[in-house]
Amino acid sequence: MASTQLGTQAIKFDIIMRFNIKHKIKTTLGLGRNPDFMVIGAAKCGTTSLMQYMEKYASNYSPPVVKEPCYFTEYNHLPLNHYRANFNGFNKRITGEGTPDYLYYPLAPKLIKEYNQVTKFVVILRDPVKRAFSQYMFQNYINKSEISDPMSFSKAIRQLDKRFFVDVNTRFYSEYKHFSYIQRGYYYDQLKRWYSYFSPDQFHVMFLEELSDNFSLEMQKLFTFLGLKHNKVPFKQQVYNKSSHAGLPQLQPEDATFLGDVFRESNAMLFELLKKDSIW
């Protein structure tokens, strides 16, 4: 068993090393390109699945090397060629990336506006109550994050904004990223901030609930917005990066009620902004 684990680790290390070497060569030679679009969030709303669907169902799509490069949140100190190397510069297919932190991070739209190379943005949202709980479970029980929260979900959500500070120049530090269960659910404020930098018609806003209810129609709308061509493989929903909560703590009714009250005004303003009937 030990030798098998060592063998697997060696393979993963080799893959990482080969990726780093190739990426460094592309960065040095400037062989990448600019993305055509960005899926900017929100986190735990299905961005990973959405990117996988494009790869599976579009005939003119070229996936990025890394789906979530986080360049405009955590790595914008690196040269632009480092970012551009993530996208295939040898074909004319449509390409893009999906970093769900962009919607939430106050500096991201400003930095991307200054970058001035992207004209289309996709936003996918879900009930912020369920999103908040999903983020907590993902980080604390699914073992996919480097941060675990010492607080229970019930206690954490009642701390609101007392656990970290935020201002217009906030760097994307750990507590701000990982403990933002409620803050990430204020979709109205985040979308309004993005609309102050880009025209609303540059955005395609989706809802995870509607994608689940009518997958084919919602994917057709997305493909039309991005200019993607359906490869005729029948649309069939499949959840990627799914977190199983079986046998784990469940969202308690009193916490759902508390969060529903917290998000009520923000949700109402969001649907008014989008000129859409509320679905939460």
Q: So, CATH architecture?
A: 3-Layer(aba) Sandwich
Give the count of helical stretches. Answer: 12
Helix content: 40-55%
CATH topology-level name: Rossmann fold
The number of domains is 1
Report the end-to-end length measured between terminal Cα atoms. 49 Å
Which percent range describes the beta-strand content? 5-15%
- What best-fitting shape do the alpha-carbon axes yield? globular
* SSE class: alpha/beta
Low-confidence stretches: 1-19
CATH class: Alpha Beta
Largest sheet: 4 strands, parallel
CATH superfamily: P-loop containing nucleotide triphosphate hydrolases
| Tally of DSSP β-strands | 4
Whole-angstrom Rg: 19 Å
| Average of per-residue pLDDT values | 87
SSE ordering:
HEHHEHHEHHHHEHHH
Order of neighbouring strands in the sheet with most strands:
2-1-3-4
Describe this structure as you would to a colleague.
- There is one protein chain.
- The chain is built from twelve helices and four strands.
- With 280 residues, the chain is an alpha/beta fold.
- The protein has a single domain (31-273), classed as P-loop containing nucleotide triphosphate hydrolases (Rossmann fold, 3-Layer(aba) Sandwich).
- The protein has a four-stranded parallel beta sheet.
- Helix 9 (187-195) packs parallel to helix 12 (253-273).
